[in-house]
Amino acid sequence: MSKKPVILVTRKLPDAVEDRLKRDYEPMLNPNDTLYSADEIIKMASKADAILPCHTEKFTSEVIARLPDSIKAIANFSVGVDHVDLQAARDKGLIVTNTPDVLSDATAETALLLLLGAARRAGEGEALVRQQQWKDWSPSFMVGVQVTGKRLGIVGMGRVGQVVARRARGFDMNIHYHNRSRLSPDLEDGATFYDQLDDLLPHCEFLSLNCPNTPETVGLLNAERIARLPDGAIVINTARGTVVDDEALIAALKSGKLAAAGLDVFNNEPDIHPAYRSLKNTFLLPHIGSATRETRNAMGFRALDNLDAIFAGREPGDRVA
Ligand code: 8YV
Predict the structure, then answer these.
(1) CATH topology of domain 104-284
(2) Under CATH, domain 6-102+293-311 is a member of which superfamily?
(3) Ligand 1 atom, smallest distance to 78 CA
């Protein structure tokens, strides 16, 4: 019987995923879910044929260059691959895969949760109840922004953006979007397309960021772009923290230019800009976009489908490098 490939799994994965790993591979598991350093990964990788990491492990060009030749693939447990230097991986002949599709519903749910939570001041209200600071009711108490029928601008109308649009239509929201390319009429489903991001912004009572982290999107929501939003707009981010210029967003939340922001992703997670915590008009989540049982299982199985293909000599379905 030929030896099963050895897979270095950097984080604790759902039980069902680890069971399949044990059945089909020789996994090097991380039962305590320790966050490995690059040096530790490089050392452990010398015994492995592939790595199954999360976005918490950074595969910079330096790390990739130091990976042992035994490693054939990096099969990510994530759709975003901004933690991997794809060009360095290609140069080293590594196959890199991700897990698209399976987390679109969960991430869109989180976007809607942020949208509602930010608009209706859910974080602030929850803290009042929890800290026994809820003293009274009055017509002016905890008044927020109504969501129903408002205009929602979506930046990045890929898989997640399209589901956000569908769910938002349940609140009778009018969908406007900017994307690298215009969607076909059936996918667009009546949404208004803007070729230029700057032309979209003045229409956005709500703005949802759903674009990947690429050199083009770093700092995309900066002071100039925020100025183009209507006064009192609400910004939602389930994409990556890098898409936002923190100082500009914080200034706009402080001045009242923006009514609120709902954020699941941040620059420098988990050591986020402290001002986000002290502002009352932020609704904050700790990067839980894909954190449902169903989705985390599906992400793991998708990563394993990719590994199965790689070790069977087939082209993996989700190859990004
Ligand atoms: C995941 C994500 O939780 O898949 C992504 O790109 O941002 C998250 O939803 C995380 O990346 C898992 O590694």
Answers:
(1) Rossmann fold (3.40.50)
(2) NAD(P)-binding Rossmann-like Domain (3.40.50.720)
(3) 4
